[in-house]
Write a structure and sequence with these properties.
The complex is a heterodimer of chains A (171) and B (98). Chain A has 2 domains: 2-92; 117-170, no CATH class. Helix content of chain A is 71%, strand content 0%. Chain A has 6 helices and no strands. The termini of chain A are far apart. Chain B is mostly helical and 98 residues long. Chain B has one domain (2-97): Helix Hairpins (Orthogonal Bundle). Helix content of chain B is 91%, strand content 0%. Chain B is built from 3 helices and no strands. In chain B, helix 1 runs antiparallel to helix 2 (29-54) and helix 2 runs antiparallel to helix 3 (59-97). Chain B is elongated, with a radius of gyration of 19 Å. The model of chain B has no long low-confidence stretch (mean pLDDT 88). The chains are: A mainly alpha (171), B mainly alpha (98). Chains A and B meet through helix 1, helix 2, helix 3 and helix 6 of A and helix 1, helix 2 and helix 3 of B.
């Protein structure tokens, strides 16, 4: 029985170590940010779960497996949250994927969900006389269409663009 | 069992080194935050394995505390950078309105 538990936990630990190593290798080798996040999440789920389960088997009937279970639970609550916050922050600040689909054309650009209100605000400001009031109103009406075209935007955004680009470069 | 713990801790250590390297060369700030987050998670795992390798279960408390600190730290950094982006956009808008 003891031998069985030892073998099981050794298999779990070594598989977990392999997962962790593969994830670290992926973080080093992947081409751009979102693919690197994918590799990092591999270590957070597969690696952490297997290693902690393997250690739990070795704990016996003490407080040790309980502590390991607490760490396990905490990691599994926090790591998806942190990943979501990281991806959201990256998307909001203009990091875009360089991935291509099978035909070789770039993937359609994803619009972060808070940015959808901005083009609507601009277009309705163009239509109405009171600029700021219209922008405020249309920002409240959030579920608007995503950005239509760059060419349609008024001069106001053209003046704003270079400032935005430098901001992206710095961050 | 010793060699299993040893091998696992070596794998985790190698991954930590790779994460630090990514944090140093990472082109964007988010790569660095990702590397720091990963390094923290691996530290938790490493402490748990070390607790068994050295036979001192009190290391597990340290691991739990470190997991908490890591989570809070990543969120603090992310909130800082997110609000910085929003602030810059607002400033640019104000400039354009002038």
């Amino acid at each position: 029985m003891n031998l069985l538990i030892d073998i099981a936990s050794a298999v779990l630990l070594l598989t977990g170590g392999f997962f962790v190593f593969v994830g670290g290798f992926g973080v080093m080798r992947m081409p751009e940010f979102f693919t690197r996040m994918h590799a990092a999440s591999l270590t957070d789920t597969g690696g952490a779960a297997l290693i902690l389960l393997g250690l739990m088997l070795q704990g016996g009937f003490t407080l040790v497996p309980l502590k390991l279970a607490a760490i396990f639970l905490f990691l599994f609550l926090t790591s998806p949250t942190a990943s979501y916050a990281l991806a959201n922050a990256a998307l909001l600040s203009g990091v875009r994927t360089a991935c291509r689909n099978e035909t070789g054309s770039p993937l359609p650009e994803n619009q972060p969900h808070t940015a959808t209100s901005k083009p609507a605000a601009v277009s309705s400001a163009k239509a109405s006389a009171g600029k700021t009031a219209a922008a405020k109103v249309s920002r409240k009406a959030a579920p608007a269409k995503p950005a239509k075209t760059v060419a349609k935007k008024p001069v106001k955004t053209a003046a704003r663009k270079p400032a935005k680009k430098t901001a992206r470069k710095k961050s | 069992m010793e060699w299993v713990y040893f091998g696992t801790s070596i794998a985790i250590l190698v991954t930590m080194v790779l994460a630090v390297a990514r944090g140093l060369i990472g082109p964007t700030i988010f790569d660095r935050v990702l590397a720091v987050n990963m390094f923290g998670t691996k530290t938790v795992l490493f402490l748990a394995v070390i607790a068994f390798l050295s036979g001192r279960p009190d290391f597990l408390d340290l691991a739990l505390a470190y997991a908490l600190i890591n989570f809070i730290g990543v969120f603090a950094v992310l909130l800082f950078f997110q609000s910085r982006g929003v602030r810059r956009e607002a400033e640019a808008e104000r400039e354009a309105d002038k």
